[in-house]
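Quick check before the chapter quiz. The format below is the same one you will see on the exam, so make sure you can read both the input and the output lines.
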Amino acid sequence: MKTPALASFVLTACAPAVLLLAACSGEAPPQAPAEVPAPAGAQPPAGPVDATYLCDGGNRVDLVDNRAFARIAMSDGRVVQLGSIGNSEPPTWSDVGLRFVVGSDYVELSQDGGQTLRCEVQAPETTDPDAVTS
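Here is the expected output.
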């Protein structure tokens, strides 16, 4: 037969150990996924953005480095840089089977033997000197 003092001792001495063992299920807590650096080819070229075009399907084209390059951010996450074809009419940027053309009444992004997407110029962001910034 157990005495009340022995039962009290067992509860006091063993309870923390039992709780600790119950909390340790042997599985490590889930860890946050590690940052994966972007491949070197996906880095945008240096230089200010001269113009931005939004194209069908969630694609975006930025003309950069005094319009020498078109940086295309594709809807699947890839970033491709196209070089300007000097003195082309209409102005055209092309490489790797992609072509971006800014005509007098149209703008399009196309893939050789593939789809042609309609694009529209995005108005540049202007800063209002009277606006309050926080």
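If your answer matched, good. Helices lie at 4-23.
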